[in-house]
Amino acid sequence: MEDIFEIFGGKPLRGSVRVGGAKNAALPMMICSLLTTQPCKLRNVPHLLDVDILMKLLGQLGGESRFSQPGVLDIVIPSLRSYEASYSLVKSLRASFWVLAPLLARGGSARVAMPGGDLIGARPVDIHLEALQEMGAEIRLRNGVVIAEAPSRLKGAELTFRFPSVGATHQILMAAAATDGKTVIRNAAREPEVIAVGTLLSQMGAEIEGLGTSEILIRGNDALKGFDSAVIGDRIEAASYLLAAVAATGSVSVAGISQDYFGEFSTILEHLGADVSWKRSADPVLADTVSLTMSGRPAPVKVLTGPFPLFATDIQAPLLAALTLCKGESSISETVYEGRFGHVSELSRLGAKISLAGSVATIQGVSHLTGAVVEARDIRAGAAMVVAGLAAKGRTVIEEGQHLRRGYDDLERKIRELGGRIVSSSEEMEELSLIGC
């Protein structure tokens, strides 16, 4: 069902908010439950459509999962009733492709449809498949389905990725953790979410060294244990709220995110002209709090997206939205995903001046944006519309807003806590149902 958001912008933001658990960590951590027969508990899980989709997939495979209380997800998969992830679910959630390695490691075979998710250009999975083949898997592709078998079980291997793929690093971490022998991943992804997954697998009984570096060593264990762990805070959600304050001006605080997770983004905020300060916390779950004050239009910057610790591609769209109001000319070069500029045409409807040349967007800052009807073409493009809408004068209507439900937990409440004015059609439907209409 289509969800429509209305934002009444043009006012400075003032307030504080706590981010939820990182979707990009929660999903692979949930998938790790496939590697054990023991009960698993995951805390700080965001309430998102993507989490719901993955819970359905785990159920199809033989698992039981439920929220025992808000944010606390219990999963148990004592046995697998199926080794197939059908297209009906995989097409909606790219991360569901990561069940391939756990199914292969646990049962010796798997059938997983090629992934879907956001339409943001080619995102091939060949690095995943080539690595699994080097670990002993026999893989063929038939009618859009990956058919994998490991008749002699997977074995440790020395692997070198040609690109530090986050998805492939997740996939091989899980495969290697449940495999006898030693596996080395060179040119591995260094993202905080990868560290979170590796740390979880260590808690389950694997021996892992080098998390957060480009070379990871894994000594597997074919009897992995259950876990009780918490999802790290969502750095992409935090960045989106901070960039909303950069665009709309004001003073905001965002809690629940570690300063170490921001990488180059911290430097970019300073270059934009924001006054940023951190309050560190010794509690890894409560994490740190970042405060940002912005007065006036942002300064122009040149940004190149890339693997962590470089500027994250998932923050590119919200940053571009904020840069539409910069004092001068800015540019963003997208090096991770091709075609990830679908939000440019929608921002232009608000009065932005942006030109595209291949993978580079050049932004000529304008003095103000004006509300209009726009579309959220994917999760992060939707975030760009929210950032721009909060800064724009008047009313902005965001159609296809259900995409935002895939990546932003309780968005309306959090925007209001920051002083923004936002309503959604789903809220209106809930109110009608409560009064019996």
Principal-axis shape equals: globular
Q: How does the helix and strand content classify structurally?
A: alpha/beta
Corresponding CATH superfamily of the largest domain? Enolpyruvate transferase domain
Percent strand equals 25-35%
Q: pLDDT below 50 for ≥5 consecutive residues: which ranges?
A: 117-122
What's the assembly state of these chains?
A: single chain
Strand order of the main beta sheet, please? 22-23-1-24
Question: What portion of residues is helical?
Answer: 25-40%
Radius of gyration: 22 Å
What's the main sheet like?
A: 4 strands, mixed
For this structure, the CATH topology of the largest domain is UDP-n-acetylglucosamine1-carboxyvinyl-transferase, Chain
Mean pLDDT value: 94
Task: State the end-to-end CA separation.
Answer: 18 Å
CATH architecture of the largest domain, by name, is Alpha-beta prism
By DSSP (H or I, 4+ residues per run), the number of helices equals 14
Structure, explained:
- The protein has 437 residues and is an alpha/beta fold.
- The protein folds into 2 domains: 5-20 and 233-434, Enolpyruvate transferase domain (UDP-n-acetylglucosamine1-carboxyvinyl-transferase, Chain, Alpha-beta prism); 23-230, Enolpyruvate transferase domain (UDP-n-acetylglucosamine1-carboxyvinyl-transferase, Chain, Alpha-beta prism).
- The chain contains 14 helices and 24 strands.
- It has a 4-stranded mixed β-sheet with strand order 22-23-1-24. It has a 4-stranded mixed β-sheet with strand order 2-15-17-16. A 4-stranded mixed β-sheet has the order 4-5-3-14, with helices on one face.
- Helix 8 (235-248) packs parallel to helix 10.
- The radius of gyration is 22 Å and the shape is globular.
- The two termini are 18 Å apart.
